[in-house]
Amino acid sequence: MSSKIPSEVSGFLYTSETLLTLDEFSRVCAVERRQIIELVEEGVLTPVGAQLEEWRLPGDSLRRAQTAVRLQRDLGVNLAGVALAMELMDELERLRSLFGNHPFGRAGRMP
Amino acid sequence: MKFKDYYAVMGLARDATQQQIKQAYRKLARKYHPDVSKEADAEQQFKDVGEAYAVLQDPEKRAAYDQLGSGPKGGEEFRPPPDWGTGFEFSGAGPDGDVGGDSDFFEALFGQRGRAGARSSRNAAPADHHARVMVDLEASLQGATRVFSLRVPELDAQGRLVTVERQLNVKIPKGIRAGQQIRLAGQGFSAPGQSGAGDLYLEVGFQPHRLYRVDGSDLYLELPVAPWEAALGASVPVPTPGGTVQLKVPAGSHGGTTLRLKSRGIPSSPPGDLYAVLGIALPAADSDVAKSLYTQMAAALPFNPRAALGV
Q: pLDDT tens digit string along A7-52?
């Protein structure tokens, strides 16, 4: 293996506008079809389209699917528990990004 | 190679019951899970705990490990005793397919046999691989090329599984958001028993930024203003990703007032906004002039900052 910096590679970026079929989504995030269907049923993932064959899942929820599966596997929680944990984590992340890690955030300087 | 005290890693006494081991693991796994924890070294801690649990939860491995005692004192070099492992059959798999993934200690004690069969997909189609990488926010704001070092499992000349470092020079698309994935076609690594390389998926996260906090495609900036700028209104300079702009602070603003600068956040599609959150910065009363002005305000303004508290 060379120690030189290899030539630049560019890739394909999955965004909220990248709509994937169930099979495509399953391959990209390496999560089984069956698990993705369960995550949709539990409301962790929200596809566009009513029938399973018509489902299109946004590219920016790939990470959600992976996180949900890792939490299930590593922490021994069931699907409902994962869904609840992820909702709370979303909320926490939003608050952290707004207020940082200060216990009172900006409240210390509120009017 | 350093001895690893698996009991210490899990905060357990050496005579802990299997039930206590399981409880300790569950608790530590929740604490250090990389998807949950915000601690900087969570991923390593989680791996250490997983490695300790893989040994201690398995009665055969635990019995073998217990034979070693508590290891050499003071972090001396550790070598397994010559008769190590005789009479033990390590058959069980850990709680996860990648136990002890890059632990020399685990490897020396339990070897390949101790690993779960996650790598057993022989002759399968080239597998895709996933990795998480951190970039600076500027890479998304301007688009950039960044070099990442990935640890990749490979077979060495003797056919042993080793971890090598591989460098990858990747174009980061302008406007990328935290949590999004980049697919690098054909850049996966060929695992043992597989032909060709699959795709490599990079999940991108942002390192903390000096000025901005990130929420999706929006940026938040804490903007200090003087009391008179907030009270009377002013036009103040604001550092945005695209350069400094003048922002009109309306009269009667206060700490926490949030002003939106449209489309000046992450240049995704659609672009995010930049929010300036005002913080009132007080001038220090460290001169006669300053003291005199504060005294005048105190005397002349009927102002109770604690009125809402009822005192």
A: 788 889 998 889 999 999 998 888 999 999 999 999 999 999 988 8
Domain B129-206 sits in which CATH superfamily? Urease metallochaperone UreE, N-terminal domain (2.60.260.20)
Q: How far is B130 from chain A (nearest CA, A)?
A: 8
Tally of helices (H runs) and strands (E runs) in chain B: 8, 11
Q: Is A34 exposed, middle or buried (0-12, 13-18, 19+ CB in 10 A)?
A: exposed
The CATH H-level superfamily of B215-283 is Urease metallochaperone UreE, N-terminal domain (2.60.260.20)
CB contact under 8 A, A15 and B177: yes
Name the residue range of residue A27's domain. Answer: 19-103
Minimal Cα distance from A9: which residue of B? B170
pLDDT tens digit sequence for B23-68: 999 999 988 998 888 777 888 899 999 999 999 998 888 988 888 7
CATH topology of domain B6-119: Helix Hairpins (1.10.287)
How many domains does one find in chain A?
1
- Asked casually if ipTM beats, i.e. exceeds, 0.90, the reply is no
Rounded to an integer, what distance in angstroms lies between the CA atom of residue B110 and that of residue A1?
29
